[in-house]
Write a structure and sequence with these properties.
Rossmann fold, 2 domains, 9-stranded mixed β-sheet, two-stranded antiparallel ribbon, 43% helix, elongated
Length: 341
């Protein structure tokens, strides 16, 4: 693989401005919020595109973009590390990894269309990037899962494989790995959105073979060497939902944990219809999500479903057909669509 096949000139500039690759203490990369603000300034200026910033002086950038001299100096320092980043990219691609940015044509269109300004500026990954064009089913849940939840996650993973629908999940212990493993063992495809080191994960022999067989894609919005953190686990939730046409919450704690936070955020933002496992012994978090108008996917019904895509489609309604999921006081904006109960 070659970085030039993935990154355009604008993409390289965005990578320099927003990635932690080859950074030092002289300038911190732009956060997502900061980049969104800077991107608007670039678009409204004569420069028009990120690549046009390369080679500009701090004085010129301050004048043209209307930013402070400190921010202009920061831009210049970040762009000056192009040589060091090029060496890092050569190493990454030689190991079978890839990187794309939000301005590149190979960036997952579904993710960009769903999350819009919240989509990560940079994605690192391994596996066949073009697989991310396929519609997926997000399967999420707690690390600690009961017997009924385990059986449900396994069945759902197999059903996704039968329907040629990739399972999208976080790859963590518990629900994530159970659903992804079941799908892969049934001959399906899975997308793992990692909150832990991508470089370390791809060293696992069984995963490397799945990557080579074009049945698994691993990706992360964080540096490929970054270790696990709670913040990273929370932040990658939106990528999981952004890559999916539908999401299923297998098991959630009540008002705590990453599964709960991600599901509530997805319901609020309307990234995709959210379903929750329903049954006699489901966790309290599942019951509350159902009260918040997540759609019910009954335990007793899953096993008998012969056409999973059709079932999802018939249980989705437009915004006009449903009341608001959450009070407007806790919503950022109206959701695009809602899932039927």
């Amino acid at each position: 693989m070659d970085a030039r096949d993935f990154l355009t000139e604008d993409g390289r500039a965005l990578l320099l401005l927003c990635s932690t690759l080859a950074t030092d203490d002289t300038a911190s990369p732009f956060t997502l919020t900061e980049w969104n603000q800077l991107a608007r300034r670039i678009h409204d200026s004569p420069l028009q595109r990120p690549a046009a910033l390369v080679g500009q002086s701090a004085h010129a950038l301050a004048e043209t973009l209307g930013v402070t001299r400190d921010d202009a100096d920061r831009i210049v320092r970040l762009l000056e590390r192009g040589g060091r980043v090029a060496l890092e990219l050569e190493t990454l691609f030689s190991r079978g990894l890839w990187v794309v940015t939000r301005v590149d044509p190979h960036y997952p269109a579904k993710l960009r269309a769903t999350l819009k300004h919240q989509s990560p500026t940079v994605l690192f990954g391994a596996g066949t990037l073009s697989l991310l064009k396929r519609a997926g089913i997000a399967v999420v849940g707690s690390r600690n899962i009961d017997e009924a939840g385990t059986a449900f996650a396994q069945t759902l993973g197999c059903k996704c494989a039968e329907a040629s629908l990739p399972v999208v999940s976080g790859g963590a212990r518990g629900t994530d790995s159970i659903a992804m493993t079941a799908c892969l063992e049934a001959g399906g495809t899975a997308f793992g959105v990692l909150a832990d080191s991508l470089e370390r994960t791809i060293r696992q022999p069984d995963l490397r073979q799945l990557l080579l067989d074009e049945r698994l894609v691993l990706l992360t919005p964080y540096a490929p060497t970054a270790g696990f953190s709670v913040g990273a686990a929370m932040g990658r939730n939106k990528v999981i939902y952004g890559l999916a046409d539908y999401a299923v919450v297998v098991s959630s704690d009540l008002q705590k944990g990453g599964t709960w936070a991600g599901a509530v955020e997805a319901l609020r933002a309307g990234w995709c219809p959210v379903f929750a496992r329903d049954g006699h012994e489901v966790p309290a978090g599942n019951r509350k999500l159902l009260e918040l108008h997540a759609a019910a996917l009954p335990e007793t019904e899953l096993e008998s479903l012969s056409d999973l895509p059709h079932w999802f489609q018939t249980h989705v309604a437009s915004r006009e057909e449903q009341p608001e999921l959450l009070p407007m006081t806790v919503m950022e904006r109206p959701a695009k669509y809602r899932a039927k109960r």
